[in-house]
């Protein structure tokens, strides 16, 4: 058997086993050393290929697709710095628990550390940010090696998806010549009826005695809080609202919790806690008996302060499989069980929590008062970033997704995203919270075919403009709402802005002063720049009828935006403190 046949059978058996394991989508960045993988993947009938030229964009594109579909997506690149460009998205995937199968091509061992071109150290390139690393053997094609290569492919898909999902990395050393011969007989090998590894994974569940012990700890505590942070399980919303009904407790629902939208009951959901927990006085007055949290820590910094300030209160954190996500640093009881099943078990168990009616009423009243302020129509039709989010939510199509950017965008969504019966998935890159790769991530989500609205700031848009190429290349339907305050608007809300520092604009404000419409035109998209809330709603509705890339840019002024937000928060605090004072008279 010559080199080409050996290379072909080795690679084709690996690729076929990826498909056997259920993987359907592969994002490929062109390069020479990756030729064996790229060609065999492209020839496989059960795999969709997405060609994304820039590796950093490609990795975030795969991340967005895997996040939306909640299944592994593969990445393929050549050797050298191409693989290094995957790193930011792999870090995000690791922390946000998104399954990726990263396939990097490499020089063979004899060309490493010799000064050969495009040969860098790729062994364990991503360090602890992958769940599993494998340096693949040089291609061989005897029966044992074809079993070996199927073993590794099957294990890669399995490992990326099992437990807390995340990225895995396989590094392929290939010798030249690199072009496989796809005309070989039985090129895909002897396909088994099932994947090399089959997976029968059960969900973690508390034993009856553990459930009884938890109930005993909570029975005497009536002023509890159910908190739902960022998470993606579509079954949790109904389960957690049923539990809240049984216990008669408020639910503090993060915008990424998937609890604020859907057909489940919502009268116990508190959406506006970030607004009123900004008041230190109210945080102290609302001391709970216990907190039980599902999902990651909420986006709200006000809630983080609240949790820290009540560190003496029993706090429980539920993780589906494993993990430690408790940035408040509080003494915590960890519950490792499937969140939806735990809610069901607690709902159905005898001797459950009996919530304090007055406690629940206080949270509901504060929430409604805050919502009244936040949703009140201003006398002007002028646009602020908050008004832009409110306008978006008013016209957002049912059965669609919001992919929300970091910094101010996700915080404005937290403030203005009120409970709705619409079916809305809310996605975000909140693992490492970076502004990079957001355009590509949104494109990956849009590639699944569902309507997607990407909301992000001007710096984040600028940071990943080359991600727009995939919309042009694959005619993806996506609406991008750019909130352009000409720089880093979030820093206007931080202590940096109040300090007398002549370098604030250079270091933190970072104005771009560029016209984004030309970038949109370059990639074949439509561009709109509304100047009022009514125009914005019209522009968004028009964008949802357009096939392809549609960018709606809202220009705001940082100082005015910061002042608008603070007036809202101050009015909410004043109203609630007045209500609390009258309650004690």
Automatic annotation (TrEMBL):
<dbReference type="Pfam" id="PF16582">
    <property type="entry name" value="TPP_enzyme_M_2"/>
</dbReference>
<dbReference type="InterPro" id="IPR011766">
    <property type="entry name" value="TPP_enzyme_TPP-bd"/>
</dbReference>
<comment type="pathway">
    <text>Quinol/quinone metabolism; 1,4-dihydroxy-2-naphthoate biosynthesis; 1,4-dihydroxy-2-naphthoate from chorismate: step 2/7.</text>
</comment>
<feature type="domain" description="Thiamine pyrophosphate enzyme N-terminal TPP-binding">
    <location>
        <begin position="13"/>
        <end position="122"/>
    </location>
</feature>
<comment type="pathway">
    <text>Quinol/quinone metabolism; menaquinone biosynthesis.</text>
</comment>
<feature type="domain" description="Thiamine pyrophosphate enzyme TPP-binding">
    <location>
        <begin position="439"/>
        <end position="554"/>
    </location>
</feature>
<keyword id="KW-0786">Thiamine pyrophosphate</keyword>
<keyword id="KW-0474">Menaquinone biosynthesis</keyword>
<dbReference type="InterPro" id="IPR029061">
    <property type="entry name" value="THDP-binding"/>
</dbReference>
<keyword id="KW-0479">Metal-binding</keyword>
<comment type="function">
    <text>Catalyzes the thiamine diphosphate-dependent decarboxylation of 2-oxoglutarate and the subsequent addition of the resulting succinic semialdehyde-thiamine pyrophosphate anion to isochorismate to yield 2-succinyl-5-enolpyruvyl-6-hydroxy-3-cyclohexene-1-carboxylate (SEPHCHC).</text>
</comment>
<dbReference type="Pfam" id="PF02776">
    <property type="entry name" value="TPP_enzyme_N"/>
</dbReference>
<dbReference type="GO" id="GO:0070204">
    <property type="term" value="F:2-succinyl-5-enolpyruvyl-6-hydroxy-3-cyclohexene-1-carboxylic-acid synthase activity"/>
</dbReference>
<dbReference type="InterPro" id="IPR032264">
    <property type="entry name" value="MenD_middle"/>
</dbReference>
<feature type="domain" description="Menaquinone biosynthesis protein MenD middle">
    <location>
        <begin position="219"/>
        <end position="404"/>
    </location>
</feature>
<dbReference type="InterPro" id="IPR012001">
    <property type="entry name" value="Thiamin_PyroP_enz_TPP-bd_dom"/>
</dbReference>
<keyword id="KW-0808">Transferase</keyword>
<protein>
    <recommendedName>
        <fullName>2-succinyl-5-enolpyruvyl-6-hydroxy-3-cyclohexene-1-carboxylate synthase</fullName>
        <ecNumber>2.2.1.9</ecNumber>
    </recommendedName>
</protein>
<keyword id="KW-0464">Manganese</keyword>
<keyword id="KW-0460">Magnesium</keyword>
<comment type="similarity">
    <text>Belongs to the TPP enzyme family. MenD subfamily.</text>
</comment>
<dbReference type="InterPro" id="IPR004433">
    <property type="entry name" value="MenaQ_synth_MenD"/>
</dbReference>
<dbReference type="Pfam" id="PF02775">
    <property type="entry name" value="TPP_enzyme_C"/>
</dbReference>
<comment type="subunit">
    <text>Homodimer.</text>
</comment>
């Amino acid at each position: 058997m010559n080199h080409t046949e050996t290379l072909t059978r080795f690679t084709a058996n690996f690729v076929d086993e990826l498909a056997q394991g259920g993987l359907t989508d592969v994002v490929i960045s062109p390069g020479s050393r990756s030729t064996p993988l790229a060609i065999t993947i492209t020839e496989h009938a059960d795999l969709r290929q997405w060609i994304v030229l820039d590796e950093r964009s490609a990795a975030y594109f795969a991340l967005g697709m895997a996040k939306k579909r909640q299944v592994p997506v593969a990445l393929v690149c050549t050797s050298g710095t191409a693989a290094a460009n995957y790193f930011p998205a792999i870090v995000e995937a690791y922390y946000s628990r998104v399954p990726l199968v990263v396939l990097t091509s490499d020089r063979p061992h004899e060309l490493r550390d010799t000064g050969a071109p495009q040969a860098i150290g790729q062994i364990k390139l991503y360090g602890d940010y992958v769940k599993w690393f494998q340096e693949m053997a040089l291609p061989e094609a005897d029966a044992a090696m074809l079993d070996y290569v199927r073993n590794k492919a099957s294990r890669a898909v399995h490992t990326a998806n099992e437990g807390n999902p995340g990225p895995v990395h396989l590094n392929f050393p290939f010798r030249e010549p690199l072009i496989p011969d796809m005309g070989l007989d039985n090129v895909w090998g002897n396909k088994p009826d099932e994947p090399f590894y089959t997976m029968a994974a059960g969900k973690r569940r508390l034993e009856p005695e553990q459930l009884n012990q938890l109930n005993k700890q909570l029975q005497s505590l009536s002023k509890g809080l159910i908190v739902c942070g960022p998470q993606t399980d579509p079954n949790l919303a109904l389960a957690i609202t049923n539990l809240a009904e049984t216990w008669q407790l408020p639910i503090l629902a993060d915008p990424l919790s998937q609890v604020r939208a859907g057909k489940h009951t919502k009268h116990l959901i508190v959406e506006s806690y970030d607004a009123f927990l900004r008041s230190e006085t109210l945080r102290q007055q609302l001391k709970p008996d216990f907190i039980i949290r599902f999902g990651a820590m909420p986006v709200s910094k006000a809630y983080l302060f609240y949790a820290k300030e009540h560190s003496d209160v029993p706090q429980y954190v539920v993780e589906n499989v494993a993990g430690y996500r408790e940035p408040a640093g509080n003494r915590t009881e960890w519950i490792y069980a499937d969140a939806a099943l735990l809610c069901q078990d607690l709902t159905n168990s005898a001797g459950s929590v009996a919530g304090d009616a007055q406690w629940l009423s206080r949270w509901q009243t504060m929430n409604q008062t805050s919502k009244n302020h936040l949703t009140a129509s201003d006398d002007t039709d002028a646009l602020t970033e908050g008004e832009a989010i409110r306008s978006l939510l008013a016209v957002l199509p049912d059965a669609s997704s919001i992919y929300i950017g970091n910094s101010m965008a996700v915080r404005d969504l937290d403030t203005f995203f009120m409970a709705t019966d619409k079916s809305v998935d809310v996605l975000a890159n909140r693992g490492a919270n970076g502004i990079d790769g957001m355009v590509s991530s949104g494109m990956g989500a849009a590639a699944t075919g569902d309507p997607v609205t990407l909301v992000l700031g001007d710096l984040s848009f600028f940071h990943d403009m080359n991600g727009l190429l995939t919309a042009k290349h694959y005619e993806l339907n996506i609406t991008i709402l750019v909130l352009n305050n000409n720089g880093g608007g979030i820093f206007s809300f931080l202590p940096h802005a109040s300090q007398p520092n002549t370098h604030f604009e250079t270091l933190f404000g970072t104005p771009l002063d560029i016209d984004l419409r030309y970038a949109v035109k370059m990639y074949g998209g439509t561009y709109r720049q509304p100047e009022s809330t009514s125009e914005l709603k019209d522009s968004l509705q028009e964008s949802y009828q357009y096939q392809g890339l549609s960018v709606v840019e809202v220009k705001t002024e940082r100082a005015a935006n910061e002042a608008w937000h603070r007036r809202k928060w101050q009015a909410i605090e004043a109203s609630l403190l007045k209500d609390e004072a009258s309650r004690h008279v």
